[in-house]
Amino acid sequence: MSRRARATIDVTAIERNARTLCGHLAPSTKLCAVVKANGYGHGARQAAQASLAGGATWLAVATAHEAAELRQDHADVPILVLGPLDEDGLAIAIDSRAELVAWTPDFVRHISAVASGREMAVHIKLDTGMGRWGARGLAAAVEIATLIEALPALRLTGLMTHFANADETSSDFFDEQLSSFSAVVGELRRAHPHLIVHAANSAATLRDARAHFDMVRCGIALYGLDPYQHDPRDWQLLPALELTSYVAQIALMEPGDSVGYGRAFTALSPTNIATVPIGYADGVRRVLDSSIEVLIGGQRRAVAGNVSMDCLAVDLGTTSDVRVGDEVILIGGSGSERIFAEEVAMKYGTINYEVVCALSERVERSYLGR
Predict the structure, then answer these.
(1) What is the pTM of this model?
(2) According to CATH, what is the number of the domain 241-368?
């Protein structure tokens, strides 16, 4: 396996994180593992298997093709497609026996027409403040529920919403959304007591048991990443992914020598520069910030200059203890030092979700554990 750009994923960590999340739930509350976007960059099929081994009983994805891929491995596990579906996607999702999410009467009718008599489970999505997909208000939810019940082969299965800022504990908007959703739940359950009600993402699952209802949908926390962008150890979560490359070259730079496009780094004194063959085409953000670091030999070293498409440079100073071939850790730990995805995200000015989802297909994945 190439060392150039490698993500090593410990699937036993994903399994353990699923168990940890299940520990926050009542025995009757289900865990739905969100494995969309190739398992947030970790590998959808591997993440699904590990999550199910850790106690999840449902899987959720964003697209029909993602559902079809998982159905090859899991004949009987409920798979929920969270996103909208066009004509082709709807046919694939139906063929994959996925459960669908609807928020307009027209889409419900379309499901019925394409299903051609095959029984399809449908969840109603409410927009309680996210401002994306979803029906708004009780009347709209009742209209869709009534239509689903009336159409042949469709089965009203769930009622769901999504929180906009469950990870912002200083905001009251989470409570407003929860209150709004709970009111609709109470009304619809009178007519449809069998509904599976679900609302909580990872942040809401860890934040407030009131949001758990019958099922929670956890994504980022399954992979050992903190939905609050701090430290996953605060929640006893174990990061599953390590991103590494290696030192391909070391060159001595004299004062005035520059490194990379735009000459953003110019040596002020003699210094050794390591060139590492991983770049923004692999998912390492092109950010000019001297505080961005990697680990070599258990020590933090600063990235020098702009990240290129296929490589980056690291300032070694006058050190002589780094050799060509040494491992370079961009996310992960060595000795007493560790670089979390949350640290990388903060320095990029983004969130840990984007850091791991941005890893491209050029990054080879290898798996530890199962």
Answers:
(1) 0.96
(2) 2.40.37.10
